[in-house]
Amino acid sequence: MLEWFSAAVASANATKDIAASLLTLRDEEVIRSRVFDLTGSLMDIQQQMMTAQLEQMELIKRISELEADLVKAKSQTDTRERYERHKFESGNFAYSLKPEHAKDVPEHYLCSNCFEKGETVTLQRSGGIGWTGLKCPRCNGQVPLVSTARYKKTSSYQLGG
User: Fold this and answer.
1) Is the pTM of this model over 0.70?
2) Using an 8 Å Cβ cutoff, are 23 and 38 in contact?
3) What is the number of structural domains in the chain?
4) What is the pLDDT of residues 89-98, one digit of tens each?
5) Range of the domain at 65
6) Model confidence over 68-86: pLDDT tens digits?
7) Which terminus has fewer CB within 10 Å in the chain: N or C?
8) Residue by residue, what is the 3-state secondary structure of the chain?
């Protein structure tokens, strides 16, 4: 990654040596040759600096991405700390706000499946014939609000008799 730096230093040293030799030379052909070498060294330095600048831009971009990931992770951690698992009578689970965080917030439950994946999805009331519960709009998970065993009908009616 820092190869450009050592190449830039070598080019800078060569440029310095060429410039120093120009001061001692008096022959025009030799001067032209040394100026050509000097120009080449300066172009090498410029190329190395451009490479360094591109690497720096890539590193800045990566740092920005990592900082965004860190902010997201911190936010998820803060959210996770505000909720606790709640067990319904049916034996199913969802997440609810801890009592100390529930002030001035309507009672609600978060889907445990989505919550454990880092998403906060509020369960919605749902129901059907003989069933009442909460349903996740994202993963379609369902949480019965009462045990389904309570609603099993037993009949004393018998056929054939």
Assistant:
1) no
2) no
3) 2
4) 888 999 999 9
5) 3-78
6) 999 998 988 888 899 999 9
7) C
8) CCHHHHHHHHHHHHHHHHHHHHHHCCCHHHHHHHHHHHHHHHHHHHHHHHHHHHHHHHHHHHHHHHHHHHHHHHHHHHHHHHEEEEECCCCCEEEEECHHHCCCCCCCEECHHHHCCCCCCECEEEEECCEEEEECCCCCCEEECCCHHHHCCCCCCCCCC
96 and 46 within one domain: no
Return the structure tokens found at 117.
């994946």
Last residue of a domain, one of 43, 78, 113: 78
Which of 143-158 are b and which e, b meaning 16 or more Cβ less than 10 Å from the residue's Cβ? bbeeeeeeeeeeeeee
Chain mean pLDDT for the chain? 83
pLDDT 10s digits, 147-159: 554 444 433 333 3
Indicate whether 83 belongs to any domain. no
User: Mean pLDDT, to the nearest integer, of 34-49?
Assistant: 90
Using alpha carbons, select from 119, 105, 102, 114 the residue that is nearest to residue 142: 114
